[in-house]
Amino acid sequence: MTCWRVSRLDATDDDTDAGDVMDWLQRLGHGALGVFERLGRGNLFLLQVLAGLPGLLLRPRLVILQMHSVGVLSLVIIVVSGLFVGMVLGLQGYNTLVDFGAAESLGVVVALSLVRELGPVVAALLFAGRAGSALTAEIGLMKATEQLSGMEMMAVDPIRQVIGPRFLAGFLSMPLLAAIFSAVGVIGGYFVGVGLLGVDSGAFWSQMQDKVDLHEDIYNGVIKSLVFGFAATWIAVFEGYDAMPTSEGVSRATTRTVVHTALAVLGLDFVLTALMFGDI
Amino acid sequence: MERIRTIEIGVGLFVVAGLAALFMLAMQVSNLSAMSNEPGYELIARFENVGGLKVRSPVSVAGVRVGRVAGISFDSDAYEAVVRMNIEPQYDRFPTDTSARIFTAGLLGEQYVALEPGGAEDMLKAGDSIRMTQSALVLEQIIGQFLFEKAAEGSKK
């Protein structure tokens, strides 16, 4: 009797296990298909945006207005963060270098870390938080309040009128913001290193100029910030355009913009660094 | 209209600030300003071994940098490295018996060419070769020599 019951229980357990596995597989497949679908929609969307960009040459005022909200209004956070990042680099670099009697190399440490890595990366992360989220929320709300559909009703292409200028403004602002971040950071490092810690001013600049290469370091930093600007703005405008037209959908899209941009920027940074500096 | 004007002025300032930052990075932080491409006074030195010397390594006299290495190539007839050095034009008076050596700055520093002027009356002209050269010290060779001598001493005893 007991024996029979046990075997029957086993049988039913097997059945539910198999069902669970199939359910799990189905959920996995559904999720994967969803990811690929979004990826495909994102790429088609990007093609549409890029196709609409040449038309903007005739209406530069749209881009200028967006550059104001994306670039100019991000300046404060970029300048303040750059200053403090540079000051911290100066302080930390000095504490490490002074043990090796190489405090004069502080300028090299500060400038190279800012120009190669921190400038483009931190500026892109701040850009995602300050400008990317605002872009997503703005476009998502336009969609939720059916302003985009209204434009379509009036035969105005929202991708050319709304998305294109924002995309171009973000793409153009990002390298400028990264350059300002790096320059202000170097000044912050100079202030701490030379002003507070007593590193020789001449050695600070001359070692920096000796070791930082225009092509190797500065151009590559600019290329990085261009790539990050492209990725960050693309994610921001796509998340907004693709948001569920509800208040919850817009809030989710805004969160996704910041998270996905951070992941994309850090991942791309590794790939770009490996290509530029890593002899791979 | 007034508001649009302020916005446009703000964007203009932003673009100017960004370009100024790039300009500052290029001129002040990197070595664009120190990179004189003008063909100064070029000297050539042949070494058996240049070690870790690179293009743009410093060339110094009495510890003062007077130029940079402009090119390193291999002469397949003499099996020697040919180092072209670009000396700044104001230092164009080196005697013909000047010698060139490759040294290392500090224990782990980069390698540089040190010129040591001799006492000859005639001066080197642009494009002339320096005859007396001393190659870079290669650490493995010195250690190998040292071990070899030690082994030789041991076998004598």
Q: How is the topology of this model organized?
A:
The complex is a heterodimer of chains A (280) and B (157).
Chain A: H1 2-52, H2 60-70, H3 75-97, H4 106-144, H5 147-153, H6 158-196, H7 201-211, H8 214-241, H9 247-277
Chain B: H1 2-29, E1 41-47, E2 58-61, E3 64-75, E4 80-87, E5 99-104, E6 111-116, E7 129-130, E8 132-134, H2 139-156
Parallel strand pairs in B: 1-7, 2-6, 5-8
Antiparallel strand pairs in B: 1-4, 2-3, 3-4, 5-6
What does this structure look like?
The complex is a heterodimer of chains A (280) and B (157). In chain A, 86% of the residues lie in helices and 0% in strands. Chain A is mainly α and 280 residues long. In chain A, helix 1 (2-52) packs across helix 6, helix 3 packs antiparallel against helix 4 (106-144) and helix 3 packs parallel to helix 6 (158-196). Chain B is 29% helix and 31% strand. Chain B has two helices and eight strands. An eight-stranded mixed sheet of chain B has the order 7-1-4-3-2-6-5-8, with no helix packed on it. In chain B, a hairpin with a 2-residue loop joins strand 2 (58-61) and strand 3. Chain B is elongated. Chain A binds chain B through residues 61, 64-65, 67-68, 71-72, 75, 111, 115, 173, 175-177, 179-180, 182-184, 186, 205, 208-214, 217-218, 221-222, and chain B through 4, 7-8, 10-11, 13-15, 17-22, 24-26, 28-35.
List keywords for this structure.
heterodimer, A: 280 residues, mainly alpha, 9 helices, disordered N terminus, B: 157 residues, alpha/beta, eight-stranded mixed β-sheet, 2 helices, 8 strands
Biggest sheet strand order of chain B reads 7-1-4-3-2-6-5-8
The chain-level structural class of chain A is: mainly alpha
Number of helices of chain B: 2
Overall number of strands of chain B: 8
Short structural summary:
Chain A has helices at residues 2-52, 60-70, 75-97, 106-144, 147-153, 158-196, 201-211, 214-241, 247-277. With 280 residues, chain A is mostly helical. Mean pLDDT of chain A is 87; it is low at 1-9.
